[in-house]
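Q&A log
Question type: sequence-to-structure
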Amino acid sequence: MNKLYKKLENFTTSSAIKIENSDPQFLSLKKLFNEIKNKKFFLPLIIANSLICYQLSWKWENYWEEFAVFFWKNPVDEKNFLEAFEKFLNWCKNNRRLLKIKFFRLKKFFPFLKKFSEQEKFFYDNLEIFLEEIAKIMCQKKSAKTIVFAVKMFWYWWRIFFGEEKIFPKNIKIPIDSRLEKIFEKYWKNYKNSKNFFENLSEKLQIPELHLDAILWVNFKEIIKITK
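Response status: OK
Response body:
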């Protein structure tokens, strides 16, 4: 932990937000926001896509670019929401695995849209409640990768829509993926599991875990010393 902390000690929450502003996923969402006609469905599209963003065939940034391109060219509303996503999954090249399971997840999420509509401000001000609601409807743990990732994308939406940069609550966990597991495996000494490890790193750096995610993403190669 000390070795990793030394590599990251000059980063702050503010520098993490600057990194997030140049995140390819964030930039793809900005493009979509500028082009989409029915902006009421901008947020539901983002949350739904977050819940099926796993086991991708290629890089995340490529997938979110595909997502943005498809949905600014294909208008969506409440009536064709699921149909549009089914077409998208059959069209896109970067999310080709487990499509039946992913479409089933979208069907589980769909009933939440009515509850969510017109309550975006409430859920944004109470991200922990939003996290609990999404986890409950998807029948998953609050720490599950796609559930936490949906919270992160919700935060991106608010920043794009209103221009407000709010800091994540400290008790919302980092979405653990294969990249973070590799970091954990390299520095794991004296830690029971990866969740415990990143919680402690977050505390030491005084950076909320979801903001820490961006820092670890851009510094991944240096952290595990991958050479080209």
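Response note: Residues 139 and 181 are 24 Å apart (CA to CA).
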